[in-house]
Design goal:
Helix content is 72%, strand content 0%. The protein contains 11 helices and no strands. It is globular.
Length: 299
C-alpha cells in the first residue's frame, strides 16, 4: 500500500469510527442516525464543524464540551481508533476494493450489534440485513453457498426456538437471533457454517461459563459445581497423558472417556433443569461470540 493510499485509508477509518460511535449510541436509543445533528449529550447544543474532527477535536477541546465543559466520553476515541483498525485490516488483507468494503461493513455492523446486545439485549434487524447483503457481496463468486448458508443459519435458530418451546416451554432465542444467524451464514457460507458455529460456541463459553459458575456458587448448587470441576480435571488429565504408554490395553483410556461423558451428561441435565425451572435468569449475548468467529473467518 502506497503512502497516499495508506493516508487515505487511515483518514477514512477515523471518519468511519466517528460514524460508528453515532450508529451505536443512537441504535441503543432507537434514534435516527441522520437527525438530529451531532450534539452534546449534556447540554444538547449542536456541535460545530471543528468539534467533529476525529481524535483532533478531543485533544483541542481537552476532553470537554466547548459549550458546557461537560466531560466527553473516551468511548468516542475508542470507536474512532476501532474504525481505523477495521479499515487498515480490511484494505491490507484484501486486494479487491469490493471485498475490503464488504469486510468493513461486516465487522462494523457486528461490532454495533455486539455492543447493543451486551448493553441493552437488543439486536438490530436492519444491521443484520446489511451484514447479509455485505456477505453476499463478499461471496459474489459463490452466491449459492452464501445464500444457502444464510437460510440454514436462520433455520437452525428457528428450529432451536421451536424445540425450546416444546421441551422447555420457553423461548431459548429471540427473533433477532434468527436474522443474526442468517447474516452470519451468508458471510461464512454453508460449507463453513457448522465449523465456525463451533468456533462461536467456544467463544461463547468465555461469556457463559463465568456467569454459570457464579450462579452455581450463589445458589449453593454444590453438586453441579463438583461435576464441573471433575469434568475439567478429567479432560485435563486426558489431554496431558494422551500420548503416555501406561494406557495399556486402552481400558483406562476408555474408562476415562466414559467418566467424562457421564459428567458432561450430568452437567447438561442440571443446566436444562435450571433453564426449565427458570433458576438461571442470566442473559448470555451470542452476538459477540459470532462476531469473534466471523473475524476469525475473515482473517
Amino acid at each position: 500500500m502506497s503512502g497516499f493510499w495508506l493516508f487515505l485509508v487511515c483518514l477514512m477509518g477515523l471518519c468511519w469510527g466517528s460514524f460508528l460511535s453515532v450508529l451505536v449510541m443512537r441504535t441503543l436509543k432507537e434514534e435516527s442516525i441522520l437527525y438530529p445533528q451531532s450534539h452534546c449529550t449534556s447540554c444538547n447544543k449542536p456541535l460545530l464543524w471543528w468539534h467533529k474532527i476525529p481524535i483532533i477535536s478531543f485533544l483541542i477541546l481537552k476532553g470537554k464540551c466547548y459549550f458546557c465543559n461537560a466531560p466527553i466520553s473516551i468511548q468516542y476515541i475508542i470507536f474512532e481508533i476501532t474504525g481505523l483498525v477495521i479499515w487498515l485490516f480490511s484494505f491490507n488483507k484484501y486486494v479487491s476494493i469490493y471485498d475490503a468494503l464488504a469486510v468493513v461493513i461486516i465487522l462494523s455492523m457486528f461490532l454495533s450489534i455486539s455492543y447493543s446486545d451486551i448493553k441493552d439485549k437488543k439486536i438490530s434487524t436492519y444491521q443484520t440485513i446489511i451484514i447479509a447483503f455485505a456477505g453476499l457481496l463478499f461471496n459474489r463468486f459463490d452466491l449459492m453457498n452464501s445464500i444457502l448458508g444464510g437460510i440454514v443459519g436462520a433455520g437452525l435458530v428457528y428450529l432451536f426456538i421451536y424445540l425450546g418451546l416444546k421441551l422447555l416451554k420457553k423461548e431459548t432465542f429471540g427473533e433477532g437471533d434468527i436474522y443474526l444467524l442468517g447474516a452470519f451464514g451468508a458471510v461464512v457460507g454453508f460449507n463453513k457454517l457448522f465449523l465456525f458455529l463451533i468456533y462461536a460456541l467456544f467463544a461463547e463459553l468465555f461469556f457463559v461459563l463465568p456467569k454459570y459458575i457464579s450462579n452455581l456458587i450463589k445458589t449453593g448448587n454444590e453438586k453441579t459445581l463438583k461435576y464441573l470441576i471433575y469434568f475439567s480435571l478429567a479432560c485435563l488429565f486426558l489431554y496431558v497423558f494422551r500420548n503416555m504408554s501406561f494406557w495399556g490395553s486402552n481400558l483406562i483410556f476408555i474408562g476415562c472417556l466414559i467418566y467424562i461423558l457421564y459428567l458432561a451428561c450430568q452437567i447438561v441435565q442440571d443446566l436444562f433443569y435450571a433453564i426449565k425451572t427458570q433458576e438461571n435468569q442470566s442473559y448470555c449475548p451470542i452476538a459477540p461470540a459470532l462476531a469473534l468467529a466471523c473475524l476469525f473467518f475473515l482473517m
